[in-house]
Specification:
single chain; alpha+beta; Heat Shock Protein 90; five-stranded antiparallel sheet; 3 helices; about 30% helix; globular
Length: about 120
């Protein structure tokens, strides 16, 4: 847990958690206790980060990260945002567990080699 500055008398916190969902999947959660969002705002944000960047530059960073995760790991993976019990939001990142060898093989194009077999 990371404690941030106090805002309006509330100690701001960010909690990071990583875990294995099963043999093949990893979940990373980033949770804060900030002002949060309404259910409608969260739903709208989740919808927007699923849209291609070319449709809107709004939420560019979240869209970019979500699209890269899906391209690299597959459509089952990516970002999901939800409200949490502490009043803030939780961003969940789901990725596929990989060996070092699988990771290196998947990055061959970045090093000038053959096509990426995982994409």
């Amino acid at each position: 847990m990371c404690h941030l500055s106090e805002v309006a008398g509330i100690q701001q916190e960010i909690d990071f958690e990583g875990s294995f969902l099963d043999e093949e999947n990893i979940r990373i959660r980033v949770k804060d206790n900030g002002y949060g969002m309404t259910e409608e705002e969260v739903s709208d944000l989740n919808d927007k980060i699923e849209q291609p960047i070319r449709h809107s530059r709004e939420y560019f960073g979240l869209k970019n990260l979500n699209q890269r995760l899906k391209l690299f790991y597959g459509p089952y993976y990516g970002l999901h945002i939800e409200r949490n019990d502490s009043g803030g939001i939780t961003v969940t990142i789901k990725i596929r567990k990989m060996t070092v060898e699988e990771y290196v093989e998947s990055h061959v194009p970045l090093m000038g080699g053959e096509a990426n077999p995982l994409v």
